[in-house]
Structures are given as C-alpha cells and as structure tokens.
Automatic annotation (TrEMBL):
<keyword id="KW-0418">Kinase</keyword>
<dbReference type="GO" id="GO:0016301">
    <property type="term" value="F:kinase activity"/>
</dbReference>
<keyword id="KW-0472">Membrane</keyword>
<feature type="transmembrane region" description="Helical">
    <location>
        <begin position="12"/>
        <end position="34"/>
    </location>
</feature>
<protein>
    <submittedName>
        <fullName>Two-component sensor kinase YesM</fullName>
    </submittedName>
</protein>
<feature type="transmembrane region" description="Helical">
    <location>
        <begin position="270"/>
        <end position="289"/>
    </location>
</feature>
<keyword id="KW-0812">Transmembrane</keyword>
<keyword id="KW-0808">Transferase</keyword>
<keyword id="KW-1133">Transmembrane helix</keyword>
Amino acid sequence: MNKPRLISSLLRLYAIVMITIITLFTMVVGYTVLRKAMTDAHNENAQAAKFMTETINHAEQQTEVILSDLLGDAQKIENLYAYFSLDPSQYLEKSLKNNTGEQLYWPQMIKQVYYQQLGIAGIRISLNEFDELFYSNQTKKAGDKRKKLPKHANQIEVNRPIIHPDNIKSTGTFTMIIDDAIIKKNIEETNGTEKQQILVYTDSNQLMYQYSGEKNSGNSDNKSVTDYVSLNEKMTEKADYVTETESRSGLKIVVLTPKSLVYQQAFQDFFWLLIGSLLIDGVLLLVLFRTFGSYGRQVEDIKVTMNKVTESQLEIRIDEASKKK
C-alpha cells in the first residue's frame, strides 16, 4: 500500500474524529446552556408571579382592614353620608357638635390612614346615592369631593363594597390604589424581571397594570388575558414563556418572558465556548497537517531514495538536514 496515502487517510480520519468529538461536546454544552436558560426563565416567571400575587393579596387584606376602620359601623357610614351631603363648613360644624364621644371628621380620618398604612397611592369612594366621588392621594391626603376624577393609567386598584350593617346592603364602593413606585422597586429587586413583562387584569379581563423590564419592549399591552388561557397546551405556539396566577379577589397576574431574549442570553453565555471550540479545531488541524504532512514527505523521500539505490545509484544519499526541519 502507498504509505503516504495511508498516512494522509489516517490523518484525515483522525482529524474528523477529533473535530467530531469537540463539536459534539460543544453542542451538548450549548444544549445544556439553553435548557438552563429556559428553566431559569420559567423559575423567574414563577417568582415574579408569586411576588405580584402576594403583593396584591396583601393589598386586598390591607383594604379590608382600612375599610373596617373607616366604615365599620352605622355611625361611621352616616358620618360619610353627612360629608357627601353637606358643604365643608356645615360638615365641620356638625362634626364639632358630635356628642357621641368619638371624634368623626372624615378628612382627618382619611389623612390618618396614610400615616398608619404603607404603600397607598390613593383612596376613592363612591356612594350609590351621590353623583360626586371622594378622592384623595399622597399629595392631598385629606381629599375632596369631585365630579370627575383625574385619569390614571397603569395602576393597581382594590375595590370593596361598602356594606351598611343595618340592612347588609351595598351602599357604595371603596377603592384603594396601590403605590406603583413601591411595586416597581420591589419588582426590580427580583431576578429576571429585566426581561419580563408583568400584566395585571381585572376579574372582567381588562388590563389594569403592566410593567416592562428594561430589556422588554412591552408590546403585549392590548392583549386580553384570554390570550394566555390554556397555557400548557399553547406554550410552544407563542413567542413568550407565560406564567399566570390569580389573587384572592380574582385579579389575574400574567408574567411573560420573550423566548427571543432567553435564546439571546443563552447564546451570549455559549458564545465564548463556541469561539474556543472553533479555535481548538483550527489549531488541531494546523498541528496535525504540519506534523503528519512533514512525516509523509519524509517517508516519500526515503521511498524515492531506496528506489534509486535499487537502480544502482549507490551514490544517492538522504538529505538529513532537510528532514530535521
């Protein structure tokens, strides 16, 4: 058999085997990195959904406590009715003449709530018998009566009926608005939220609140929560990893992480390993071809020289100096 050709064939086979091993190893590591990124995305979604659910559940409990303190008996509800029906001077005079022993002055009662409770952005009250609404916020804690409310977008509201204890009927609605700054601060302290979009829907599937991390374009604002129902069945058809939970009162929390961002992060983690693998393949090929190529040329020279010697060219010698290069 022609030895140079044999060596060349062995060289190619060895190179193919080594490159295949390195490539397979790189692919296995890349797949592992991608699976970890996908698992992390699901875990981070679950963590963010749990945080938002707990935050809203706490706000719902907080609202019930505040409502009980402010309007927990018939006297306090009658005081609120007086506030709505009288002008400010008449209401103040009536409050000062109160002989029940408990000072009930609605603006002061509301203002006190902000000092006793944390995380409140505003309070809104509507009574069935009045066209006006009561509204207060951090800027004007005592609040006032208004025909129209300022338009606020992107805020989480907790609504509770005002129940009159004498007839057990709803006389209006008490609404607490959660402070968005506190929610956002706590969200951003949670792992993975820079890639996430967090949506909160009412029990009638209307978008109430949305948060988009700095790496998320936030293009799901107008989607109905029904788009994310039957998540397990439709997960592979969507561009997002989706986690959905629900608060005690039925508010729906949907956390989205775009698959494109997960894949991008996985590729960034895998990139340097891929570059290293390509460099190793290149260096390996260079070393193999230089080493075995030189060896093949030496064998060919020896074969040619031996053939000439057999042809009686006894003066022929192998150039050893060239073979040491």
